[in-house]
Amino acid sequence: MKKQIKVVGAVIRNEQNQILCALRSTEMSLPNLWEFPGGKIEEGEQPEESLVREIQEELDCEIKVADLVEDVVHEYPGVIVNLLTYEATVSSGRPVASEHAKLEWKEIAELKELEWAPADIPTVEKLMK
Ligand SMILES: Nc1nc2c([nH]c(=O)n2[C@H]2C[C@H](O)[C@@H](COP(=O)(O)OP(=O)(O)OP(=O)(O)O)O2)c(=O)[nH]1
Ligand SMILES: [Mg+2]
């Protein structure tokens, strides 16, 4: 059976209603694709807790997590990913990329111009509705 992983991603919005988009680096899996920053849920964690932890690790800032945006199951060649995306805002600090190649704040209308990781596309579509 294919490995299944549970992953959380943050749809971080600023005061101008822009969304923080993160480009995966060449050292990561799915290189050069855009994603909502986040990562794997660890044992015993609630998804919201994982997201706060992952954003602290990856972006060195604190977020406040709000509503669920999408719950997507996507089958990649080697793994099945269950991606939960949540609305979030920065509550302390400023996002700085430590693992990603870059971070960009984008207008909702600009999101479709980026090349997203496949599991993220339903979230992007939901945001554009
Ligand atoms: N974080 C995140 N991962 C995603 C998204 N879309 C998507 O397909 N993935 C995939 C890529 C990875 O195979 C998997 C987990 O992502 P990850 O590399 O961020 O995991 P992580 O932060 O826990 O990092 P690590 O411990 O494995 O180094 O989910 C997304 O929007 N955000
Ligand atoms: Mg990650």
From TrEMBL:
Keywords: DNA damage, DNA repair, DNA replication, Hydrolase, Magnesium, Metal-binding, Mutator protein. Residues 3-128 form the Nudix hydrolase domain. It catalyses: 8-oxo-dGTP + H2O = 8-oxo-dGMP + diphosphate + H(+). Mg(2+) binds at residues 38, 58. Its EC number is 3.6.1.55. Its cofactor is Mg(2+). PROSITE patterns: NUDIX. GO terms for biological process: DNA repair; DNA replication. Gene3D superfamilies: Nucleoside Triphosphate Pyrophosphohydrolase. InterPro entries: Mutator_MutT (IPR003561), MutT-like (IPR047127), Nudix_hydrolase (IPR020476), NUDIX_hydrolase-like_dom_sf (IPR015797), NUDIX_hydrolase_dom (IPR000086). The keyword DNA repair applies. It is an enzyme of class 3 (hydrolase). The keyword RNA-binding does not apply. Belongs to the Nudix hydrolase family. This is 8-oxo-dGTP diphosphatase. It comes from Gottfriedia endophytica. The gene is mutT.
